[in-house]
């Protein structure tokens, strides 16, 4: 079974590359399918650039060795401005290993206006960015990307790359309405816009080291009790260079049918902190947060989980299912669990009930520090 999946992934990546070349794009690379050597870093700092809420009354705290510093009033030095919150997620990751520093930009929120506003207020430095990562093909994670590039591309390294989980990032997605069989548009990531801004996209369906300090999980195996909760539907195919290659899919998909999204392209971004263990960042966790962590453990060979961070897509979870999944997370023995975005208030409350000494609930503008 594993060999079949690996071969399907290889054919899928090859087809995607061929489709890109046929359409005149030189902006697609395929990540090396060989095993990776997982890097270790001394320190990781995560700045939450975009999340759904801001709480100016949060106090600094340290939980299981992880320092959480909220941004206070969220205005910086100008009372006329304030941090923008929106449905979506964006994280600015800075790492240190000895004298060596790296910066990785993970996801870009729903709109460039909010993202650029928060970058300016929080005074993060985009010129330091060594790599860009998009977790999956939902607008609330890539919506600010092209606007960010329009504002800062000239300040980034000429060879900076965008790491994406797979060709499906470029598929057209729609959201179901209250009327059965009817949908509203949810957009699609446009590779033509990336090419115009001289951004090379690396398709990482296999585990990939990023900027020498991080790694991605590659395609995440579905091995736990978790299930994909209802969300978007997907339409495959390429027209005038827009969309995703469908040549490796089923007849129904080739026919352009709109089908439930299985998120085969979603990947998690991970860091291995010296003497602490893994920090696993699941921006939305559609394929399951437990599955994501297990995948990180498998590809890295590191069992210890220091932190589970990000969106876990359990906001819409029924109570019994939520209780069960939080219990499964507890079995992973993380030092801290840090829910954001689509995790849901229900998740935060259940996690605090089951793991009262291990939960941090951050806010837009929070800084989280892992390691020395």
From TrEMBL:
SUPFAM superfamilies: Metallo-hydrolase/oxidoreductase (SSF56281). This is MBL fold metallo-hydrolase. It holds the Pfam family Lactamase_B. Residues 1-18 form the signal peptide. Residues 110-154 form the Metallo-beta-lactamase domain. InterPro entries: DHPS-like_MBL-fold (IPR041712), Metallo-B-lactamas (IPR001279), Metallo-beta-lactamase_dom (IPR052926), RibonucZ/Hydroxyglut_hydro (IPR036866), TAT_signal (IPR006311), TAT_signal_bac_arc (IPR019546). Keywords: Signal.
């Amino acid at each position: 079974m594993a060999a079949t999946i690996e071969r399907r992934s290889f054919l899928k990546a090859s087809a995607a590359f061929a489709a890109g070349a046929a359409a005149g794009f030189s902006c697609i690379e395929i990540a090396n399918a060989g095993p990776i050597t997982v890097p270790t870093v001394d320190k990781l700092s995560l700045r939450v650039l975009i999340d759904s809420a801001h709480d100016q009354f949060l106090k600094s705290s340290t939980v299981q060795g992880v320092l959480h510093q909220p941004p206070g009033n969220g205005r910086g030095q100008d009372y006329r401005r304030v941090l923008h919150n929106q449905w979506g997620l964006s994280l600015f990751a800075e790492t240190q290993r000895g004298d060596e520093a790296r910066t990785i930009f993970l996801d870009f929120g729903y709109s460039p206006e909010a993202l650029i506003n928060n970058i300016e207020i929080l005074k993060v430095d985009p010129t330091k960015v060594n790599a860009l990562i998009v977790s999956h093909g939902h607008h609330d994670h890539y919506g600010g990307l092209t606007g960010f590039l329009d504002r800062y591309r000239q300040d980034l390294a000429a060879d900076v790359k965008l790491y994406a989980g797979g060709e499906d990032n470029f598929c057209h997605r729609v959201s179901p309405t209250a009327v059965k069989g009817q949908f509203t548009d949810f957009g699609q990531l446009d590779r033509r816009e990336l090419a115009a801004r001289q951004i090379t996209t690396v398709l990482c369906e296999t585990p990939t080291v990023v900027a020498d300090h991080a790694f991605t999980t590659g395609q995440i195996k579905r091995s736990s009790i978790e299930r994909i909760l209802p969300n978007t539907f997907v339409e495959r195919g390429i027209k005038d260079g827009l969309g995703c290659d469908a040549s490796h899919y089923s007849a129904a998909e080739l026919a352009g049918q709109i089908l439930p999204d299985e998120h085969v392209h979603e990947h998690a971004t991970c860091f291995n902190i010296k003497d602490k263990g893994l920090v696993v960042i699941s921006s939305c966790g559609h394929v399951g947060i437990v599955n994501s962590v297990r995948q990180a453990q498998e590809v890295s060979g590191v069992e210890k989980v220091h932190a589970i961070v990000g969106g876990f897509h359990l906001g819409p979870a029924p109570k019994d299912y939520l209780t069960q999944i939080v219990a499964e997370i507890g079995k992973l023995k993380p030092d801290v669990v840090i829910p954001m975005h689509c995790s849901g208030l229900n998740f935060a409350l259940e996690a605090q009930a089951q793991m009262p000494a291990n939960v941090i609930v951050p806010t837009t503008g929070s800084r989280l520090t892992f390691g020395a």
